[in-house]
Design a protein that fits this description.
single chain; 415 residues
Length: 415
Amino acid sequence: MEVKNQDHRTIAENLDLYIFDEKAGQGLPILLPNWVIIRNQIQQFIHQKWIEYNFQEAITPILGSKALYKTSGHLSHYQDYMFPEISRNNETYYLRPMTCPHHCLIYQQKPRSYRELPFRLCENSLLFRYEASGAMKGLERIRWFELSEHHIFVSHEQLKEELKKNYRYIADILAAFNFPISRLVCALHDPNNSEKYHSDKELWKYSESVLVDALNELKLNYVVLEGEAAFYGPKLDLEITATDGKNITIATIQLDFILPQKFGLKYIDQEQNLKIPAIIHQSPIGSYQRFIALLLEQTNGKLPFWLAPIQLVILPINDQEEVKEYSENLQKKLLTNNFRTEIWLPEKQIKYQIKQTYIKKIPYYLVVGKEEIKNEKLKLTYTYSSPKKEIELTENELLEKLKLENSIRMVKLNQ
């Protein structure tokens, strides 16, 4: 029972976050307004990190032409996970499974100098992958998702330092969400599997040594798994343990020398020679759907104040005009100060409504009656604490407290 209650599917149902409907299609979740609030708050946080680490945001189409994925090699190596082609008037397209080919086109738009490198692109991209029906579970593995996706075009001389910088970037983000990383996996290729991986042995030797050297210089503890690399290069996966005991990748860094060759990417070095850059594929949180699902499980749904879809509920003790008017004015003040606030009208007993604030994991509630109006003091109850935590505040004190709490961009786990 405890594992079921910690499963993100149970928690998400109580928080009204998403639905599946067979009419929409298998593995295609419909994300509800409460979900969008959480996603937007995380996206704002990530966006600030983009600025701090000098990433540039792009927006690319959700479709790509057959020629694009032929060039990238995805049609020969990844087609089993792509949706079938869409053809019309002699044009053929695919729903994109990733954005790296589109980002290569951005790099390719003009001649590049070594002075422009590293060239860091990022995107919140909508992606589509045809997962087997038996492999899907809630939001952890689905057929459409939004990925926080990064591609860094870099010279070979910059590669090791850029790898280390990208690890610190990811670690910085995950630290704010307080995810306990269970293990780091250095995924290398299987030299005996010529079908799964490119055949350039020297390139594999070089790329894997660069990744391993970077990890050693960062003094990280990691495990090596052969045969788990991407088809174009080695990678580092950051994993956490889900409530069912399985290790799940939450973030990844991948090294790629093949895609730049396929797209003919170049830059001019200091000696005016044409060189081929490398690409670092990187995602600090993976998909928003999986990340939020794991976050729900890690916190048991008790999201911190800044992430909670509903931050505070006002509970009028009756429907008398004075109480109703005061509650509406208080809500207006809170909404004006950007606090996500609802009024639950007294259609049911107050005990039932209070219980619902706990079930729906709403951080705070205020019970409003004539006594609170007369004394100009509000009793603020924190639902996450045990035993019950209640404090009296004036309206101004309430606003100041909530402003302070809204500014704390950290997540506490196992509350």
